[in-house]
Specification:
Blueprint (H helix, E strand, L loop, with lengths): L1 E5 L26 H8 L3 H10 E2 L4 E2 L17 H6 L6 H5 L2 E6 L2 E6 L4 H8 L7 E5 L12 H18 L6 H20 L6 H9 L3 H8 L7 H14 L9 H12 L3 H9 L6 H16 L3 H4 L2 H25 L5 H17 L2 H11 L7 H9 L1
Parallel strand pairs: 1-5
Antiparallel strand pairs: 1-6, 2-3, 4-5
Helix pairs in contact: 5-16, 6-7, 6-13, 7-8, 7-15, 7-18, 10-18, 11-15, 13-15, 15-16, 15-17
C-alpha cells in the first residue's frame, strides 16, 4: 500500500499539558466498536468509571462543564492514559490530529489544523509544502465499486492544482482564481462522464501562456468593492446554517460580519508590517485543504465542490483572523491566523455534518456561484 503524507508530518509531537488548548473538549469523541467492547469488559474502580462516563447508546464519551471529556483532568491530561495506559485509547484518541483518507491501495494522512501544534507545522514555514510517498505492507481492503480511472485523473488534477497554487511568480489571488476556473471546467467533463476528456482541460490550463491569458480575463472581476462586500457577507451568513460546536464561534462570526467593509482595518491588515506573509499563508491553507479533500471526489464525483470548500475555508480563516488580529494586534498576524485556523477546523472539520452541508451549500449558485466566488477572491 502507498502511504502519502506532507513533508512536515513526522515533525509533529503532542505537547500534552503544555498545549494552550485541549483536543478533549468542545466536540464529541466517538468511540469505535472494538474499543467500546474492550471498555465494557473493564473491571474494578476504573471499569465502574468507564461504565458511568460513556454514553453507550451513542458510543461517545460523556461531557461535563465546558463540554470537556469526562476523562480530562484539571491539568488537561487524560485519565485513561494515566490509569489504563495509551494502549486503551479509542481509535480517535490514538490517531488525532492525524486525518486519514482511504483509497484503493493508497492511504493519505494529513494533520488537522484544529491542533495548535499541527497548525504551526502547516502554516508557519515559508517554503512550499511537498509530499512524501512510501510503500508499506498492510492488509489490502477490497473496494467493490472504486473508480480507479477517475481517481488517477483526480490525482493528476490535484498535482496540477498544487503546482498552480505554489507558483509564486503569480499573485495569490490569481492562483486561487485560476484553480477554481480549472475545476469548474473539469467538473463539466465529470458530469458528462467524459473522464478521459479531463486531459483536454489539463492541456488547456498548463500550456504555455495560459496563466497570462487567464489573468487578462480576470480584470473584469477586479475593482468591485461593493459586490465583494456582498460576497463576504453572504459567505459568513452561510456559516450560520452549520452546527455550532463551540459557544465562541457565533460571536466570532458576528464580529467578523461587522468588520466587512471596514476599509481602514482591511488596509491596515494588508499593508502593515508583521510576522506573517498572507500570500504564503493562503497558499499553505489551499494546499492543506486540496491535499486533504480533493481526491475524495472519487466517491461523489464532486471535484468542483471540493475546490470551493477549499477556497471558502481559506477565505473564512483569513477573514476571521483579521477580526482576531484587530482585537490583539500586539500578538501579531501569525498568532491570529493560527487561532482562526484552529477555530475554523474545530467548527467545520470536526463535524461530518458541517463538511457535508458546506459542500452542499457550495454547489448552489448565488453566493458560491463562479462569478461571485471570483469576485470574492479578487477583491
Amino acid at each position: 500500500m502507498e502511504i502519502r503524507v506532507p513533508h512536515y508530518y513526522r515533525k509533529f509531537k503532542c505537547t500534552a499539558d503544555k498545549c494552550p488548548d485541549t483536543c478533549c473538549a468542545g466536540w464529541q469523541i466517538v468511540i469505535d466498536e472494538e474499543t467500546l467492547e474492550k471498555y465494557h469488559k473493564f473491571e474494578g474502580p476504573f471499569g465502574n468509571r468507564l461504565a458511568n462516563s460513556i454514553d453507550w447508546r451513542e458510543g461517545v464519551f460523556k461531557q461535563y462543564e465546558d463540554k470537556r471529556c469526562a476523562f480530562l483532568d484539571e491539568n488537561n491530561l487524560c485519565d485513561i492514559y494515566t490509569e489504563a495506559g495509551p494502549q486503551n485509547f479509542c481509535r480517535t484518541c490514538k490517531t488525532y490530529p492525524r486525518h486519514f483518507e482511504e483509497f484503493e491501495n493508497v492511504r493519505e494522512i494529513s494533520l488537522a489544523m484544529s491542533c495548535p501544534e499541527a497548525a504551526k507545522l502547516i502554516l508557519k514555514p515559508t517554503e512550499p509544502v511537498s509530499f512524501v510517498t512510501v510503500e508499506k505492507q498492510y492488509k489490502e481492503e477490497i473496494y467493490d465499486e472504486f473508480d480507479f480511472f477517475l481517481y488517477s485523473k483526480l490525482v493528476d488534477a490535484r498535482d496540477i492544482i498544487i503546482e498552480m497554487l505554489q507558483d509564486r511568480t503569480r499573485p495569490m489571488k490569481e492562483r486561487m482564481a485560476f484553480t477554481v476556473a480549472f475545476t469548474h471546467d473539469l467538473q463539466a467533463r465529470i458530469y458528462r462522464g467524459d473522464i478521459a476528456g479531463m486531459e483536454v482541460i489539463f492541456e488547456r490550463y498548463t500550456r504555455k501562456g495560459a496563466k497570462e491569458r487567464f489573468a487578462k480575463h480576470l480584470l473584469i472581476y477586479e475593482g468591485l468593492p461593493k459586490p465583494a462586500k456582498e460576497f463576504k457577507k453572504g459567505m459568513l451568513k452561510q456559516f450560520e446554517k452549520l452546527e455550532v460546536l463551540r459557544d465562541s464561534w457565533p460571536e466570532l462570526l458576528e464580529k467578523t460580519l461587522e468588520n466587512v467593509g471596514n476599509k481602514e482595518l482591511e488596509m491596515h491588515w494588508r499593508e502593515s508590517e508583521g510576522d506573517a506573509d498572507l500570500d504564503i499563508i493562503a497558499e499553505h491553507l489551499m494546499v492543506y485543504f486540496i491535499f486533504t479533500y480533493f481526491c475524495g471526489a472519487v466517491y461523489d464525483e464532486e471535484a468542483h465542490s471540493k475546490m470551493k470548500f477549499s477556497i471558502i475555508g481559506t477565505l473564512m480563516i483569513l477573514e476571521t483572523a483579521k477580526t482576531l488580529w484587530s482585537e490583539n494586534m500586539e500578538a501579531g498576524k501569525m498568532a491570529a491566523v493560527l487561532e482562526a485556523a484552529k477555530r475554523y477546523s474545530r467548527e467545520v472539520e470536526h463535524s461530518d455534518e458541517n463538511i457535508e452541508l458546506l459542500e452542499k451549500l457550495s454547489r448552489r449558485e448565488g453566493v458560491f456561484g463562479l462569478d461571485s466566488l471570483l469576485t470574492g477572491i479578487l477583491n
